[in-house]
Amino acid sequence: MSVGVDVSGPVALWASTEGAPKLHERDEQPGGASFPRSRPSAEPAVALAAYNDSGMASTAVVVPALSVAYPHVQRFPDGSFLVVGARCNWTDAGPEQNAMVIGGDGRIIRQGCLGDGLQHVQVAADGTIWAGYFDEGVFGNLGWGGPNSPDPLGVAGIVAWSPVFQKTWELDPDEGLVTDCYALNVAPDAVWACTYTDFPVVRIADGHEKIHDTENVTGPSGIITAHDRVGLIGTYRDPSVLIVGSLMDGVFTETSRTNLWAPDGAALPMAKVHCRGSVTHFFSNRDWYTFDLNEFE
To answer: For residue 104, which of 146, 50, 37 has the smallest C-alpha distance?
Structure first.
């Protein structure tokens, strides 16, 4: 149902064929519009698993009932799991609790709220939760951002949270840098992002961001880094393209553009893209592909 990559490798959330549809339900609105539900109509049992380099599960726990829909999954350095629902309603009683830490016995250790509109969730080596938000999480929906409700928690577009769900840092919302966080990478040295609308390369380190303008970059799904190089994965027209460049004087300068292929030489299948450090992870159905920028010349 969901896959992510922590500092050690992939983590996944599995559900049965009967429970899976509950985690991706939508509410139909008059006129034909529909929105993802923040809560499943019935709470299915799920399994959380962490994987090693060979693709074998090294840790697995069963959660008897999951209360959030469209889940993101990560793991903390202590081995506990983080599950965050992508959508979150603001109600008269306050916000829904869409984030939870789950221990090795499958029980919820603590809960909190990371707001609505979560596009990316990654946990750093120190336990910091980094979240990138899409447009509804930035501008407001589902009760957020109205005349009688608070600003969205993701109004800055990129936010750092503590392991107990306290906001510790965010971009300056007044800069308007993020309308939608297209790509996020929590690397060992810094946090990297590429954001809509102008798709700059953003580097965040020690509480400060540095912006690098780009040209001819539209709609990347991933960003990776290796030494003095940055790679952008995908465009609106071609999800398999790799754009490599260098950063200097506030500009991303493209040095090469090529396409990535599956190991057998076939076209890279449609996949969910997750980037950590220099490595891009592609998950397509039950296949897992990786590409390391350090191995590309």
So the answer is: 50
